[in-house]
Amino acid sequence: MLRTTSLLRRLGRRQASFNAALAAMDAIETSERLRVAALVGGLRSWAKAQGIVYDDDELQKLSRPASPNPHRARERRGEDNLGRSYEAFVRDVLRGSLPSEEDFSRVLRTGAELLRSEPVVKELNVRESLTIVGDLHGSLGDLNAVMGLHGRPSTKSRIIFNGDFVDRGPDGVEVLAAVLGMKLAFPRHVHINRGNHEDAALSRAYDFEAELVAKYGVDTSLLDDADDAFAAMPLGCVVNHGSTRTMVLHGHLPRSLPSLDELKRAPRVRSVVAESEEDVELVRDVLWSDPWDQSDVVDNFKRNAGCLIPDGALGEWLAREKFTRLVRSHETEATGAAVTPVPNGERWTVFSCSHYPNRQGLTLCLNKAAVLQVDARGAVNVRRWDAGEDDRAQGALAARVRGALWRHRSRLRDALAGCSSISAVAKAISDIVGQDAKVWETHLLPCLADGSAAEAKWHEIRDFLSVDLPARHLPPRAATSPAAHAVFDLLDTDRDGVVRRAEFFDAVGAVNQVVPPERRIDGDSVWGLLDCNGDGELERNELERGLRI
């Protein structure tokens, strides 16, 4: 028994470290993708303002970084016709039928209209059972598992989907279509909360736009419809259930610990990443924040967005606002769901995507999926399953860490030259790549040494950056795309086949004159991502690689 307990503890620590490393890499790659996407968007605006002729379809592709989750070809089972019921539409999607572009657009637009008619934070009085679903991240298999456990939504069986329907998995279209279709089919029994990936900027920086193009073609306008639906989604639900009162939202409370009335007055915005207005901070915090074990509310250095809320502050809020518990999602859990006692109540985390991300969950740690089922008395029960396949997630994560180091290779070489300890290495990498130095030392660098910080020698990392990157550490290299040619031709003003640093910064300066202040580009940070070998020049293939972070 003691040996089993010890093993479970080790597995739990390993899962926690993996989750921390995964969140850190998400934050690093999100920041890098948004910087590159900002450059491309700015170039489009600048070219139009100058009357420069270019292939706009190809430049639009540049705002869509290649998805790390290639989408399998899917046979369309005839044209869907929403003259039939939304329930039939959902049934077909859950069976694997890709909705037609016309039907998906109609579901997005009609769903957005319905969601806009609802409060930003809804109050639900529930007498029977209620199911709360966590992140699904494009996993149609897990959504089918959810509906198999829950059954048909009804007055006696309501369901709350707590955000993050798209990105990371191959079936974001189907998951979003099915969830919105259920909302339209059962508007009083199905409730939708917004997640941090339901965002106009992230849908372009991550996988969803690329998935739409892969499934519907480059000319599709579905992303605009999806952005409207994302912005219309409520932020949370208040569930009055028996003698209990539950707040359900995606991330956590905002840093200001506002009253419920203040939460209900939050604005609806298309992006909390791209917009910087003060009143957007509350929404950003709800979608991006996490709990932590310290005593102060601080910025969320793990994700570079939102904040970190101590359980003591949460407990005070629960007592003040007369809540029993907070139910959130946003973070993976080894067993799909977990509860933490806090002063005056409890905090639940539920995650409904097994083997996250994209079937790359840890084999030994069993990243299961779960939903929370609240019974008629208000008691919480956990229902778990595993719809994934065992994969080697550590190898995939290590490849992402190596890729981040390689993209900043030229600056890291000099910075690491004088380092004599792993702590110094972590600090140098933190200053250049981003994320807290302790996260690099404790979670990210050990990924390169099979989980052992002692084996992640500083000189091994320095040697790794001093030679050409082995092919096994790079994603498959596609032929240079027409999209990369389009941006290269805009930057290469002297037409000599090379983009020099001066040409790049001239273009950035011109772009910054025609875009709003909040969209101006930090040329140094983007150049560092593109000029991987540090020679001060960009060739076509080098630019292509940089645009495909």
Automatic annotation (TrEMBL):
It is an enzyme of class 3 (hydrolase). Residues 479-514 form the EF-hand domain. Keywords: Calcium, Hydrolase, Manganese, Metal-binding. GO terms for molecular function: calcium ion binding; protein serine/threonine phosphatase activity. It comes from the Eukaryota. It holds the Pfam family Metallophos. Gene3D superfamilies: 3.60.21.10, EF-hand. Its cofactor is Mn(2+). Its EC number is 3.1.3.16. It catalyses: O-phospho-L-threonyl-[protein] + H2O = L-threonyl-[protein] + phosphate. InterPro entries: Calcineurin-like_PHP, EF-hand-dom_pair, EF_Hand_1_Ca_BS, EF_hand_dom, Metallo-depent_PP-like, PPP_phosphatase, Ser/Thr-sp_prot-phosphatase. Belongs to the PPP phosphatase family. This is Serine/threonine-protein phosphatase. It comes from Pelagomonas calceolata.
